[in-house]
Amino acid sequence: MRMKQKETFHTGHAETSAKDAKEYELEFNPAQPGVQEAEVVKSALTIGGLAALFSMITLITFTTALQVQVMYSTLPYVYSDFSAHSLIPTTNIVSSVVAAIFRLPLSKVLNLWGRAQGFAVMLTVFTIGVIMMAACQNVVTYSAASVFFWTGFDGMFYVLYVILADNFSLRNRGFMFGLYNAPYLVTTWVGSPIASRFLSGPGWRWSFGTFAIAAPVAGLPLILLLLWNYRRARLRSGVSERKEHRNAWEGLKYYWVEFDFIGLLLLAGGFSLLLLPFSLYSGQASGWASPMIICMIVFGVFCFVLFAIWEKYWAPKSFLPWELIKDRTIIGGSIASANTYLVYYVWYSYFSSSLQVIQGLDITLAGYVVNIHSVGWVLAGIAAGALIRTTSHYKWIALYIGSPLQILATGLMYHFSDTGSPTGLIVMAQVFLSLADGLIYLTSEVAVLAVIDHEHIAVVLAVYNMVTSIFQAVGATISAAIWTKVFPSYLSKNLPASAQPQLESIYSSIYSQLSFDKGTAERLAIEQSYSQAMRNLFSAALCLTVIGLVATLFWKDVNVKDKEEEQPASRQLDSRQHSSE
């Protein structure tokens, strides 16, 4: 409908200026209000305003990235305080699924209410999660807080990507996406020392409490800038603000339909109930035969069946944008990107602990090694963005460099997981893997955006990120299923008889694992058990790397320089600079 109206206008009024066409479209075209608002804000942003926008986004990214880096370093100690070290991936499963499914209704928030409003909602959810983490007294409360935390964090991450896509041309997006992650180059190196200071000082709770204050302070300026630019542009252009004429009941029914809450709950429940048993079965006396495990699997399948029936026959509005996501580039790009998370999260949850136990690194040095992935990922993303801007093509970067390098690096991680491997070789493998993942992630993002128009940016990025988070949850599920099965078995086999009574304590707490001095029989047994378990994880990860390579083959290799962006909000940055002069 929108394109038809637009064509009629241009056909009937060929002499009308581009400015008149823009005003006509904003006032009379039935685009969703959030998309209109993004276009109005774009029209009001000068080069200085764009610089201010990116600076505020960078501040938010720095603050939240620092919080995450600190949290990663303290996480084993948080769970060990609750004697639940082996449950780290279980929490990741639930939080990843909820964060994944929530992005699609969030995309509708962005399109119906606006980018500023959507970001404000996610900032609030993130802050609630951080406060809950600081105040939690048991692992159940911390797990619930983790759901709020990651839903808010991933939601903010997603909204900021949409804002960047709104305001930069397709050719420049890859480079700007790479720059957007640049704060990780700093937070990677300061996160672990800060975490160490918190652990040795006021405690890990204050590592969350501090950011419960810092995050809202960093995020508020961006919200105000977007709202101010929208109001200024609307008043200047004379475009009337769209009013809603619904009472409370009508509004409730409208948003219930738009957000498809029933579909949302069924899909989230299905994924959670199917994935959680893989991390919980080993703790049940009857294993897979446990009534709880059987019930979770049965109800998980039942939720998926109900979801399919609901979406096919009863849903007034479909939860998933089926027509959009049928495109092979969107499917291939989403899977290739998501597979980097799948492979990474198969082994990531226990990597820091293994470095401290096997290599004897302290929390700061272990954090540096773990965070190499963030640094290389960012640098590779910036390089990929520059290459795309120069060559106007993206597929070759992922197909001939990124995917083969990912396979090689994961194989090296498997090879160097032995107890006798020098730390330097592990660092080398991490560098290779980080570069590979950065190249694949950024090129896949550009690929999916190259085959859509501006109006569909929010929903397609939501699907793209949803698939990524679901794959992340699957990776954590595989990790938990393998670890909870093999690690206690290896400990039971390797520990000397004198340490067998402490097996449960050693299994569930990194404090207990590190309490034995290097070179003692107990510590050697723990190191050997870690090495054997990590090799199982890396072996699974290596097999999964092939998925990303195959997915890349399905991409269309769009020339981003030649592609004409049809929506007004997608005009080239260079033209805006020219007009501002």
Describe this structure in words.
The protein is mainly α and 581 residues long. It has 2 domains: 28-236 and 316-558, Growth Hormone, Chain: A; 261-315. The protein is 79% helix and 0% strand. The chain has 25 helices and no strands. It has helices at residues 2-12, 18-28, 33-44, 47-81, 88-112, 115-135, 139-167, 170-180, 184-200, 204-237, 248-259, 261-275, 277-280, 291-314, 322-325, 328-347, 351-357, 363-391, 395-415, 423-449, 457-494, 503-508, 510-514, 521-552, 573-580. Helix 3 (33-44) crosses helix 10, helix 5 runs antiparallel to helix 12 (261-275) and helix 17 packs across helix 18 (363-391). The longest helix is centred in the last third of the chain and has 38 residues, at 457-494. The protein is globular. The two termini are 36 Å apart. It is found in: Membrane. One of its GO terms (cellular component) is plasma membrane. The chain crosses the membrane at residues 44-66, 86-106, 118-135, 147-165, 177-196, 208-230, 251-276, 288-310, 330-348, 368-388, 397-416, 428-452, 459-483, 537-555. InterPro entries: MFS (IPR011701), MFS_dom (IPR020846), MFS_trans_sf (IPR036259). Keywords: Membrane, Transmembrane, Transmembrane helix.
Descriptive keywords:
membrane; globular; 2 domains; MFS_trans_sf; mainly alpha; disordered N terminus; transmembrane helix
Q: What's this entry about, in short?
A:
The protein is an all-alpha fold and 581 residues long. It is 79% helix and 0% strand.
